[in-house]
Amino acid sequence: MARIKALLAMALSHEWVLKLLTAAAIAFIGLWLARVLARALERLMLRFQVEETLRSFLRNVAYSAAVVVALIAALDFAGVPTTSLLAVVGAAGLAIGLAMKDSLANIASGVMLIVLHPFRKGDQVQIAGLEGVVDQVRIFQTLLVTGDNRTIILPNSQITAAPITNFTLRGDRRVDIPVGIAYGDDIARARATLLAIASENQLVKSEPEAAVVVTELAESSVNLQLRVWVFAPDHGTVKTELMEAVYSRFGQVGINIPYPQRDLHVYHHDAEGRPLAQLTAAVQDGD
């Protein structure tokens, strides 16, 4: 025991040993403070209801930064030349940043999406021509689920660079049902029938009121459009129900839904290019 104490006293008499132990203590305390800082930041973000994904990202960034500061402080106290070390780390960080510029762009875009909230989980959206329900918003990627249960993974940098259509954000959504009627049919009767169909559907909202407008005088039909308002999640269901009801009711009340028609006139000529009707008339006249 006395020998151990003597060895310990001799070791402590060397300045580098004291520096090494102090540096280890600084590193230990720094790591402890990094964990405390991360937990405190987590509680603060929970208080302000920050998105879970952003909370996790910022907590990890804060913890990593605190750990780096603690280790650099410990190395500096131990006598390691941190200036050159920081230069090397900075150069390495620059090289890594250039190599991972696309990933860093995705991270920046992910933070923007989480902070600005152009959409949330469960929203029906259309992004860069792709439509689906938002399943997850991650730091690097956003996941959409299509109506046929396919998962679309979009890099966040592409989302922020493309137009975003959010069908759910405003709560209500308009359903447009195009209907063509024959030129001989009564527009007022067709309008009354369409409004009656809309009023009978329990998912159609009474405010704003349903409307029927004439959209086009087409080649084969007078094109009408039934416009009703529904809650956004009911859009697909109501559209299907109204189209089925229109087809059935129009048949009952005698309103025709025409299909495109073309009139074809056939003219016959002889070898010299004279119309057949002229030749027939000449024969009848005795020529």
Features:
alpha+beta; 5-stranded antiparallel beta sheet
Model description:
- The protein has helices at residues 2-12, 15-47, 52-77, 82-99, 101-116, 156-160, 187-200, 235-253, 276-284, and strands at 124-127, 130-137, 141-145, 151-155, 164-166, 172-181, 211-217, 222-231.
- It is of the alpha+beta class and 287 residues long.
- The strands form 2 sheets. It has a 5-stranded antiparallel β-sheet with strand order 4-3-2-1-5. A 3-stranded antiparallel β-sheet has the order 6-8-7, with helices on one face.
- Helix 2 packs antiparallel against helix 3 (52-77).
- The radius of gyration is 38 Å and the shape is elongated.
- It starts with a helix and ends with a helix.
- 14% of the residues are buried.
Summarize the structure.
The protein is α+β, with helices and mostly antiparallel strands and 287 residues long. Helix content is 53%, strand content 18%.
The biggest beta sheet, please? 5 strands, antiparallel
Structural class: alpha+beta
Cα distance spanning the termini: 146 Å
What overall geometry do the principal axes of the alpha carbons give?
A: elongated
What's the total helix number?
A: 9
Point out poorly predicted stretches.
none
Please write the string of helix (H) and strand (E) elements. HHHHHEEEEHEEHEEHH
Oligomer: single chain
Main β-sheet, spatial strand arrangement: 4-3-2-1-5
Radius of gyration from CA coordinates: 38 Å
Give the strand tally.
Answer: 8
Instruction: Report the sheet-strand fraction.
Output: 15-25%
Mean pLDDT across the residues is: 80
> Helix amount, in percent?
40-55%
